[in-house]
Amino acid sequence: MGMPSLSVPVSILDRANSREGFPESDALNAVLARAESADRLGYRRFWVAEHHAVAGIAGSAPAVLMAALAARTKNIRIGSGGVMLPNHQPLVVAEQAATLQALYPGRIDLGLGRSLGFTPAVRKALRAGPAEAEEFEAQLAELLAYLDGTAPITARPQDGGRTPVFVLATGAGVEIAARAGLGVVLGGPALFRQNSAGQTGALERYRSAFRPSDRFPRPYVLAAANVAVAGSEEEARELLLPEAHALADSRTKGVFPALSAAHSAAELSGRQQDLVRSTLETSVYGTVEQVHGRLEDLVASAGADELLVTGGAFDVEGQRESDRLLAGLF
Questions:
Q1: How far is 254 from 232, CA to CA, in rounded Å?
Q2: 246 near 214, Cβ under 8 Å?
Q3: How many whole angstroms separate alpha carbon 138 and alpha carbon 145?
Q4: pLDDT digits over 192-246, tens only?
Q5: DSSP helix/strand/coil, 144
């Protein structure tokens, strides 16, 4: 008898990581190819992110990339994970989402975040700072009104509330998502941090404060985690190491570099080794059997409705095989 299928749907978030020695256009084309493969494999969603002036990430314009992805795929839902609302006028974000929804009906998601640019210079260029981030809930309400057709002006094309909206939970994001009756995306250490009752505290706050809406009559949780599957646990770990090293660089040197072949531990400072270890501790990797068990444990502890696979790899072929092996579980 074969292994049982995972109990929830699985989706992918691709940050369009650049790779050392290759042009940035290759990173974007790799995203397109990965989405086409994910569509064939039966993944539910394929999302892209927004980062500005980051050396190791080519994905800066989610709406543009989403249009290309939707045109190249047939069934998979295409979305943002996410558009950083403090960087934009809510009307423009609503118009972009509604346009995509009109062109690809029933296939577009809108994930929203409140993160700011990585450096003061980037924040200045975006005309966005702490004040704009603090207004996220009001900006979100304005955007929803444009999508729903309840704003003082009519955004066109009219969306009629058809586009599902999710909030990336950072800081107060879980409570904001709950009050608006939207789906929530939680990842990183907060997803793995449990209270004395063995529950994910942030998600319990989300569920207890949730107000049903036309979009989501009940709480909906996407649990986001770096995932890699390979023939052995060590091979899967190797897939995740380049991004873990890049994250360690970003937190110790202030620059997130293009992914490169994994460094040896001897090349890292003690602080960097600790950061790499921390990243891997909140990742899921291993053989098909190991990943199946670990993901089911994650779904159970978080009460997740869906899994969102994150994590970039330098080894494009290895990442493609990881996606294929993971798809065998659903």
A1: 33
A2: no
A3: 11
A4: 877 656 667 889 999 999 999 999 999 999 999 999 999 999 999 999 999 999 9
A5: helix
Q: Answer whether 87's CB lies under 8 Å from 126's CB.
A: yes
Hey, is 31 helix, strand or coil?
Answer: helix
- ∠ CA 247-249-254, nearest 5°, is 105
Q: Are 299 and 292 in contact (CB under 8 A)?
A: no
End-to-end alpha carbon distance in the chain: 15
Residue in the structure block whose two tokens are 């084309």: 29
The candidate with the shortest Cα–Cα distance to 27, out of 227, 319, 330, is 319
pTM (whole model) above 0.90: yes
**Which class for 319: exposed (0-12), middle (13-18), buried (19 or more C-beta within 10 A)?**
buried
Q: How far apart are CA 135 and CA 173, in angstroms?
A: 12
User: Residue 110: beta bridge partners?
Assistant: 80, 165
H/E segment holding residue 221: strand 221-229
For the record, the structure tokens of 294 come out as 């670990």
